[in-house]
Amino acid sequence: FASFSIRPVDPVGSDALWLGRASYTEPPALYLVPDIGAWASIGGTLPLIKRDASSALDDNAFAALDMSKDTVRILRALSPLYNATAVETLQLEAVSKDGTRVPYFVTRQQGTKNGPTLMYAYGGFGIPVLPTYQATAGVAWLERGGMYVEANIRGGGEFGPAWSNVARKAGRLKAYEDLEAVADDLYRRGLARPEQLGLLGRSNGGLLVGNMLARSPHRFGALVGEVPLLDMRVYHRLLAGASWISEYGDPDNA
Question: What is the C-alpha to C-alpha distance for residues 203 and 195, in angstroms, rounded to an integer?
Answer without folding.
Answer: 24
